[in-house]
Amino acid sequence: MPDLSRRARELGTENAFVVLGEVSKLQAEGKQILSFCIGQPDFVTPEHISMAGIRAIAEGHHGYTPSPGIPELREAAARFFSRTRRIEVQPEDVVCGSGGKPFIGYTILSVTDHGAGHEVIYPNPGFPIYQSQITACGAVPVPLDLRESRDFTFDPDELASKITDRTRLLFLCSPHNPTGSIMTREQLEQVAEIVSRYDNLWVYSDEVYSGLVYDGEFESIAAVRGMQERTIIADTASKTYAMTGWRVGYAANRKLAPSFTRWVTNTDSCPAHPNQWAAVEALNASQAPSDRMRDVFLQRRGRIVDGLNAIEGITCRTPGGAFYVWPNVTEACRMVGAANSEELRKRLLYETGVAVLADAHFGTPVEGDGDHLRFSYASSLEAIDEGLQRISDFINKNKK
Known about the structure:
With 400 residues, the chain is an alpha/beta fold.
């Protein structure tokens, strides 16, 4: 039997979907599982957006489109970026894709050369696809630690120390997955000052949770003076509009747009045609449904943060955005005799029916920061309350 390439054998994955498979198997066996593992709004797509997709199908919009997307979507995304990032983005700067993930790979492929030793800096913990795509594309992954003492942001001096003449790309994610942290304008300006010292260094700003900021306004590094030209702004319809399965994303950078277009042509040909029209409606219509969803997430954030902090052995900082919390469970692990957060995660799943993710799913341990779990609070208040009660009961029952 022919063998797989090393690249295929070593390709990483997104463990949220792996754990989701575990959850589905247990549910099929009749187990009652409360899942906090998947980063997906539990709302249905707003009706006016769904109807726009249905109309598109009824009107015959089901053929190929230009690779970078229909003009109407590129125009809507450009207006959206211009309004929310407070910069000028033109439709020709925008390329649309099948969700946000493809742009991670397209960017790495566009700014690094395979096997040339080009380095890419990414946040740790962080979205696991960053590291897996960096490696698969033949670049060198360089983790940048996010520390609890800094509300899960990085030290600018540490960033500066990791940049070399081989560094080609820096990944930023704010609001951040998995910690929910946000970068302030001041922090972004510090990063911009460091990056501006290097002529050949790009910034990929992963802004897919831009619509879920709870304290103050969303800030993009693209709005810092001198940064728009070297920044890839990436966003999607998935989180803001509860459209995860529609698979529509958009990225903006004038110089890289033609390269992204060629990558789309070489991979997906184009995003799904009717889905693009649904995204046009999402971006152009009233944002009130998204505002209401954000208000619900804000209420849930308060409930889960307070509830976790009330459980012995767990401490949880209040995240500034997204719909994740990243509680420290170091003491809880010690109390129940779990070697680390991954062992605790498995025990919570199989002994209490509560599904969460461990920090090992998002990178390597940050020295001195202890053990953490990730909870998605894209769940009802009732599910949050029940899940927290099960965890509390588990710890009380299993204390050594």
